[in-house]
Specification:
Layout (H helix, E strand, L loop, with lengths): L3 E5 L3 E6 L18 H9 L4 E2 L8 E7 L2 H12 L4 E9 L5 E5 L2 E2 L5 E2 L2 E12 L9 E10 L6 H8 L13 H11 L6 E9 L6 E5 L4 H9 L12 H6 L1
Parallel strand pairs: 4-11
Antiparallel strand pairs: 1-2, 2-4, 3-4, 5-10, 5-11, 6-9, 7-8, 9-10, 11-12
Amino acid sequence: MHLDILYEDEYLIAVNKPHGLLVHRSSIASDASEFALQLLRQQIGKMVHPAHRLDRKTSGVLLFSLNREMDGVIQPMFANRQMSKKYVAVLRGHAPAEGTIDYALKKENGMMQEAITHYKTLALAEIDLPFGKHSTSRYSLVEAQPETGRMHQLRRHFAHILHPIIGDRPHGCNKQNKLWKETFEMDTMMLHASSLSFIHPVHNTRVDIEAPIQPEFARVVDILGIPSDLVPVPSLTTALDM
């Protein structure tokens, strides 16, 4: 697998991680044989260090440091909210036009952590797909900006407001996920890290990195009849043609 490089300088490199690819080896995913960390090392012939994490099922901007010194600088920037992250997601139902989800989340050790997500709805869709007692199915394309970076924050927050992300099995709607798999052969989670912005710690210049949506995300948007110009980043296919 060849990773699409979105940004590179002498200190940092960012790739567009596909859905389903782990960032690095994990004991909880013994079925995986490819990992973004190893793939990128082989691709560029250099050591790389992941600056943050993306869930296996989430695609999009994934940033790495090219040396341990930079890794020690860049990781705290995520913890200290010096990174502006945006995501796009497809949700079940028609979500409000915009909102802030301020809902604390429990860590694995039982402690509660503050968690805040801002979002706005980019498009609403209704398709001729019967679901339960309804003759149609409704969906929303949203852009989300997490203020904090908690485990599965966006997945848990959108489930909390009863608009779960399509394709999210642990936190989403299993009936909707089954419907999409049976109807469209689609079981990818519709969550994509679309952009990452920050002030470069060495150059002191603003860095804006955007990741085109992956083909499966673009296919879902097309199924929903959402115009491509409403998606804040282009599809991977469109970007390659440019």
